[in-house]
Fold this sequence. Notes:
Elements (H helix, E strand, L loop, with lengths): L2 H15 L7 H6 L5 E5 L2 E4 L4 E4 L2 H4 L8 H11 L13 H17 L5 E7 L2 H18 L7 E5 L8 H5 L4 H4 L9 E4 L19 H13 L3 E6 L3 E2 L5 E2 L4 H11 L3 E5 L23 E4 L11 E6 H6 L20 H16 L2 H19 L5 E7 L2 E9 L4 E2 L6 H11 L2 E2 L6 E4 L7 H20 L5
Parallel strand pairs: 3-16, 5-6, 5-7, 7-10, 10-11
Antiparallel strand pairs: 1-2, 2-3, 4-12, 8-9, 11-12, 13-14, 14-15, 14-17
Helix pairs in contact: 4-12, 5-12, 9-10, 13-15, 14-15
Bound molecules: pyridoxal-5'-phosphate.
Amino acid sequence: xxxxxxxxxxEELDKKYIWHPFTQMKEWREETxxxxxxxxxxxxxxxxxxxxxxxxxxxxxxxxxxRKKEIDEAIKDQIDKIxxxxxxxxSNVPAVKLAEKLMQVLNSSFIPSSLAKVxxxxxxxxxxxxxxxxxxxxxxxxxxxGRNAFVSLKNGYHGDTIGAVSVGGVDIFHExxxxxxxxxxxxxxxxxxxxxxxxxxxxxxxxxxxxMDKILYAHSGEIAGLIIEPMIQAAGGxxxxxxxxxxxxxxxxxxxxxxxIADEVATGFGRTGKMFACEHEQVVPDIMCLSxxxxxxYMPLAVTLATDDIYNAFLGEFQELKxxxxxxxxxxNSLACAAAVAxxxxxxxxxxxxxxxxxxxxLGRWLQEILGRPHVGDVRQAGLMAGVELVRDxxxxxxxDRADKMGWKVACRARDNxxxxxxLGNVIVIxxxxxxxxxxxxxxxxxxxxxIMDVTEKGGSS
Length: 462
Ligand SMILES: Cc1ncc(COP(=O)(O)O)c(C=O)c1O
């Protein structure tokens, strides 16, 4: 069979068998799927040999580009030893080394870090499930009754498992599952561009924090924990929080004796310009969820960090059943942990946090420029994470209809020009690997700007 026939066969097989995530399969089947066969640096290549700049880090996971020598080698070395053994009743060398490395990283970031215990799982959603269950069970062990609910934010996104959806706040993803979800109190999103309290950002005095205070005041006896994406609500639309907001949330959690769960699944590992987003406001949460970038975008792995106080509450005699009854088949997978150790070592070796400063500045300047376009309503940035919100009418902030699929049209146009991006509704997301060169960042931004202008100003579609 020739290469063309084999490629066609793969396309047909994809359409016949694969149910893609977050994808309307009716539309998918009407188009030709792009099937990736290779990657190198910031680029991915499809089966026809076309290269695309990976503008969203393969869904926000990739840090050092594809086929990074050190991570490739760490996985190959580990595979010559063992790929996987269970963490239930056994330990393994890479899992132990990664825990040590994580502590070093945390201690050089948070001063001093009280997040001293590492619980492994496989992905961002499970890291969140673990955090929620830990918080919930913690109060039982402390003999505090009634703390059966959580506080989360509108526009928050914490994953797709049922616990994570319960604390989610993106209606189009989460509403349909309503009857399955547990009780949460929803605090306003710090979405200054579309403030639900109808306040002006410049003089609001963080009114959304005031609303959160009211919820906590009224219900603190029912609340086990508060979960938040620090500094930026990512999947909810790249919504950055105003200065002082995160610190204010920490203060409220302390005031009402509620566990603060920081979901750093998207923001962790340098994305916001610091190793962890909590560092921007010197906040130390009680529980922290990490995943995505932890392996440099190579392997599924997640970590839920907890304080000694939380961990200690689970200590007891066997028959007391204080054990944390949670675990997954692949928890602490050796290959994934080896990849993560290599990834974290590279942060120091390549001085990643220093080297991204200039790129963050370039992205910031580009955002200010694109804000001048007639259909760009707002731009938001946290480090190398950015969102460009497209609007039908800039004066009134009227959004495009969902059916207009403006975000998609922009992404398709960019893809035709060799850049892969994936929008969130009307928000164009830019989140390249941290290792992207200045030149490739320039290409990503040029192509995206042209796509935005073509689609919103000239009515171009793909
Ligand atoms: C903040 C946040 N939490 C949790 C998740 C869920 O992670 P995963 O898709 O690995 O389950 C995501 C995914 O985008 C996320 O952005």
